[in-house]
Specification:
Blueprint lengths: L4 H15 L16 E6 L5 H15 L8 E3 L3 H8 L17 H9 L6 H18 L2 E4 L3 H4 L6 E7 L2 H12 L3 H23 L11 E4 L5 H15 L4
Parallel strand pairs: 1-3, 1-4, 2-3, 4-5
Length: 238
């Protein structure tokens, strides 16, 4: 199994929280709810950069001694599988799109993986457990819908114009315009299908977010500050 120092540290902290008996306490209020953040994103809208910029800001302004904020983007699947003692290789069967029915059935029959609905349920449960502990940034996996009714969440959608995203993709992948445009369209479609297939939702529905940020003309730092201000206001900690 590959080594993921960042994930190993986060997983150890998460498991310790789950197995530590919690004393009985009164019903949580807005000021003692464990905060967490979800970032839904169009491809190349800047989620990874903004998430990384938010970490020190969140630790400083909404931090807690002994519990640093975590950012789970591409590593979210590996984190979820590892927390359920499942091998990392199963992540390939859980793209942010519906895997083909034939491929899924064959994989189950030959023992490549458990039923896909079971794996997806385990990922969903891990997101909910992490949200209860708080101080986590989730990128993708419809985390905003998974945690919509949970207190402490702030749900953000990051978007940008198509031309801006094409230029960013060309720079990131060192590819021609046509290839960049195809990758963007394919990824955006896959994410819409994933949300529709597993959660019956529309990833572009503005009513499922607290804030929508267009990163077209905003620097990543400015976008991070806007998210931080909105989150603090919602939590009543401005």
């Amino acid at each position: 199994m590959a080594s993921h120092t960042y994930l190993d540290n986060g997983l150890s902290m998460f498991q310790a929280q789950l197995h530590t008996p919690q004393p009985s306490a009164p019903v949580q209020t807005e000021t003692d709810t464990h905060p967490f953040l979800t970032l839904s994103r169009e491809v190349c809208a800047g989620a990874t950069t903004i998430g990384q910029l938010l970490l020190p800001m969140l630790n400083e302004q909404l931090g807690r001694e002994g519990q640093s904020w975590m950012f789970l983007d591409k590593d979210l699947l590996i984190f979820a599988l590892t927390s359920h003692n499942l091998p990392e290789r199963l992540a390939q069967f859980l793209p942010e799109d519906r895997i083909s029915e034939i491929k899924g059935v064959i994989g189950e029959l030959v023992g490549l993986h458990p039923p896909l609905w079971e794996l997806e349920n385990q990922v969903t449960e891990t997101i909910r457990q992490l949200s209860r502990s708080g101080r986590v940034i989730f990128a993708g996996r419809a985390a905003h819908l998974v945690t919509w009714t949970m207190p402490g969440g702030f749900h953000v959608r990051l978007v940008a114009g198509k031309e801006t995203r094409i230029k960013r993709m060309m720079g990131a992948q060192h590819c021609e315009r046509d290839a960049a445009e195809q990758m963007i369209e394919k990824t955006d479609l896959a994410r819409r299908r994933f949300v529709k297939t597993y959660f019956g939702g529309d990833i572009d529905d503005p009513h499922t977010y607290d804030l929508i940020v267009n990163t077209d003309r905003l620097s990543p730092a400015a976008a991070a500050r806007i998210v931080m201000a909105g989150m603090k206001q919602k939590l009543g900690r401005a």
